[in-house]
Amino acid sequence: MRLPISLLAAALAAFLPSLAVAQTGLDADDLDTAAALREQALRGSAAWAVVESLTTEVGPRLAGTEADARAVAWAKAKFEAMGFDKVYLEPVSFPVWRRGHERAEVVGPFAQPLAITALGGSIGTGGRPLEAEVVAFADLAALKAAPEGSLAGKIAYVGYRIERHRDGHGYSPGSTIRASGASEAARKGAAGLLIRSVGTDSDRLPHTGVMRYAADVAPIPAAALSNPDADQVERLLRRDQPLTVRLDIEAGTQGEYVSHNVIGEIRGRELPDEVVTIGGHLDSWDLGTGAIDDASGVGITMAAGALIGELKRAPRRTVRVIAYANEEQGLFGGKAYAAARLAAGEVGAHQIGAESDFGAGKIYALRAGVDPAAWPVIAQIGEVLAPLGIATEPGVGSAGPDVGPIVALGAPWAQLAQDGSDYFDYHHTANDTLDKVDAKALDQQVAAYAVLAYLAAETTVDFGQLPVKPAAP
Amino acid sequence: MRLPISLLAAALAAFLPSLAVAQTGLDADDLDTAAALREQALRGSAAWAVVESLTTEVGPRLAGTEADARAVAWAKAKFEAMGFDKVYLEPVSFPVWRRGHERAEVVGPFAQPLAITALGGSIGTGGRPLEAEVVAFADLAALKAAPEGSLAGKIAYVGYRIERHRDGHGYSPGSTIRASGASEAARKGAAGLLIRSVGTDSDRLPHTGVMRYAADVAPIPAAALSNPDADQVERLLRRDQPLTVRLDIEAGTQGEYVSHNVIGEIRGRELPDEVVTIGGHLDSWDLGTGAIDDASGVGITMAAGALIGELKRAPRRTVRVIAYANEEQGLFGGKAYAAARLAAGEVGAHQIGAESDFGAGKIYALRAGVDPAAWPVIAQIGEVLAPLGIATEPGVGSAGPDVGPIVALGAPWAQLAQDGSDYFDYHHTANDTLDKVDAKALDQQVAAYAVLAYLAAETTVDFGQLPVKPAAP
Is Transmembrane helix given among the entry's keywords (chains A, B) (predicted)? Predict the structure, then answer.
């Protein structure tokens, strides 16, 4: 996942604790149905089995690999087996990045191997090792402040350590270093970049994640050290003698691949062309099996949609569950989805978009970006979610990464904020595996997504449209 | 470390809480000195700095590598810098085992990589991958019960999961599988062995450790899966179709290497030829930096010896701190030490041998194997240790792995039992790094070793000799 980039701009008016049908467009039967969905999910949902299936049978599924195609086939078959009314694929194109071998070692008197992993999008070392002195910086500002040319032929190391927070806000400065550090280092003449892993753990398992080269720099290889290895590099640098590291990385981007967003729908009974979307991303990084990032999101939202599909009476609007392609390398699935809706004139049909992409921890807050006139519906949904330990938080939050592109076109959104306290222990590492996922926590999330999607699809209230944001550069 | 293989046979007589000088050979000044050592260590010892130095400057130090030689030079210099009276090396020979590359992957419809590491002593796959069907066994008994020839051409997988206990007793059955599983599998015709890691963690970091081939079998490659990968293999096997795995391992034993036990002594003031030994092992596995296994033991006992060396008046007997060579691959250092003492007729000079080789967790018990007449001394030492949260436990315990060989020759021993609750989370993995070591916990251990070594060296009581054990086959 990526961090929130927008907050709901307007503070929202206070609402009455007892909500009228006229304001919420929901009657007592609707609320009973939502509560029943909630309780059914808590008794045991399909989410864990879905996560188990994806992570076991497909395993790692780096976008653009043969496993990507297996994941798409898996998702289509899973939607069908779970009784969705309509299952279809939409193409998503992107450049193909591949990781080959990757090795690093200290050379000289303190010779020893270092655990690294190339950042997604990085080039390699050009078929031979890069051996160079390491120059350390505390953070991106320090790197930017280095004199022009001062890193000529050196390996820049940025040791910024992210903080652990429930809402994950410590991640943002780390991910910025990961994304732009190589370009900043290259501007100073560096031959390579090493960063401390953008993670809160202390395991010898480095965190990958996407990076990009600015147009004005010659690419240099970029990799993350595991946190213990970053500690080690910092200790070695305190030995007051030059630290030379040898990097041998095989990686690069070549060619284009067409993957697919995989979509399953529960058709609305009255307004089938109006949609509430929930989903997660189908791809993962290659190091782990993508259990928390993001098989959990796929499993939670598939299970929630399937529960709604089992109702005797479908909700008014269509519930669309989306397994997005290639989120990790640049939100390609979310962008393609939004672009296709824009081309088809369907953006206005989007009543609410929500996404699960922050691991497998329990949900603690409901947030939303909707027309202020529709806030009573959100408040009503919040009342049904309250027994799950979920607070309704007006005026804060953001859409998820893959929902972001259609929200930028004006679509309303909801966020079910998860406890991400341990998310960055495993995120983008080999340790992102099924054992990190708790089935009961998934059930709580399925309950929340089922309630949200059902009531948002059932209400007669329109969630409106948000201001259109200018496209990112 | 390896687990206790012997227990003190005789239950020891109860002792009076108030101990007479005649029984303990220790006067009030001696006890004051011991208490002062304890308090000084608790205020901050040298142990963490020693561990930091060894793990940072030498890093991984697999026996027989160039890092082994660096570790020996490091230990000699460190003893000298810490003011030991006499520092010397004793040769230790052993065969050289080397790890090259190691890769494993599931082939077929669920293709994905698996995290493995070759067991120490294993052969490789002969320069080309071994691709074979996996046959699973719950434990060693199940493997032994397989019909002759039933594993022809297959890879045997043993899924035994060790239990977490403070005293580490869950390790023993797992280490037995690791040591002898390949021979058992080979007897059934298997082409390779995979085991679940002998560890209590859930990280994608497999646990290595020593194995041996029985004389009557043709060697087959043997490796451990990380625990999450073992889970994955077990899930894949439940898919009710054959599971084929490709192993590509480069490893083997060739040639002989001469390393050294590195010894530092604080010379006794009255009986310099009588010795109390404490120590840890200098070598480590290659995957981590051997911080808990066993830089901690080296650091704790070096720091304890150095504290005793700083006393205005040395204890009666010599305190000998031993950094043993190549414990990991077969207690070579401990065996060489015992053999040299036997050859020199010095076994009887050993009053007490103790060893720190169970990580960096706090000490909770004092145990000993001594002549029953000397038990009051142990009880007295226990009284000085009690403020450290250490209980005296008569009639139980065992010598450490490297002390074992000289104990088998009759030397008395003491054990300072550590809390190993998390030891097998990191043991023999890449995760055995300095960040797993707590400086305050080390200080508690330094306090305990300093008290034990000082009082055992100071007492006028003789600890006697134990029954000689027959040599292991």
Answer: no
